[in-house]
Amino acid sequence: MEFYGYDKCGTCRNAKKYLDGKKIQYKDIDITSRPPSKKLFVTILKEGTYGIKDLFNKSGVLYREMNMRDKIKTMKEADLVQLLAKNGKLVKRPIISDGKKHTVGFDEVVFKKNWK
C-alpha cells in the first residue's frame, strides 16, 4: 500500500494514526517530492468516487497563488491531471492506494469501509 502524504499535514497524521491503529502497513511517500503518477490520478478518476476537483488541495498556498479555482473550470481534465502529477503541493492529501482501492483525504467512515 502506498501512502502519499506530507509529514507536516495534520490530516496525514490522522490518517497514519488510523492505519497504524489497525496495524496496516504502508509505504510512506512524500507527496511534495514524489507526487502520484498521472496513471494513478486517471485510475482514481475512472473509479468515479472522486472528481477532478476532489483531487486538489483547495486550502493550499500554491492552489491560491496559481488561481486554480478559476483554472479548474476552464482547463481540460488531462491538463489538470498533468499539473497534479508535477506539483505535489496542489494535491489533496493523503492519497492512499493498494492498487485496487484508493482514497483521497482522510474521512474515518471512508477509511473504515476501505482500510479494515
Distance between the termini: 13 Å
The CATH first-level class comes to: Alpha Beta
Strand order of the largest sheet: 2-1-3-4
Q: Major beta sheet, specifics?
A: 4 strands, mixed
Indicate the CATH architecture: 3-Layer(aba) Sandwich
Give the proportion of residues in helices: 40-55%
The counted number of beta strands is 4
Cα radius of gyration in angstroms: 14 Å
How much strand content do the residues show?
5-15%
Low-pLDDT runs of 5+ residues are none
Structural class given helices, strands, pairing? alpha+beta
Shape: globular
The CATH superfamily title: Glutaredoxin
H/E order of the elements? Answer: EHEHHHHEEH
What's the rounded overall pLDDT mean? 96
**Helix count?**
6
What is the fold named in CATH at topology level?
Glutaredoxin
Give the total of domains: 1
What is the structure about, briefly put?
The chain has 116 residues and is an alpha+beta fold. Helices cover 44% and strands 12% of the residues.
Describe this structure as you would to a colleague:
With 116 residues, the chain is of the alpha+beta class. The protein has one domain (2-114): Glutaredoxin (3-Layer(aba) Sandwich), CATH 3.40.30.10. Helix content is 44%, strand content 12%. The chain contains 6 helices and 4 strands, in the order βαβααααββα. Strands 2-1-3-4 form a 4-stranded mixed beta sheet, with helices on one face. A hairpin with a 4-residue loop joins β3 and β4 (102-104). It is globular and about 40 Å long. The model has no long low-confidence stretch (mean pLDDT 96).
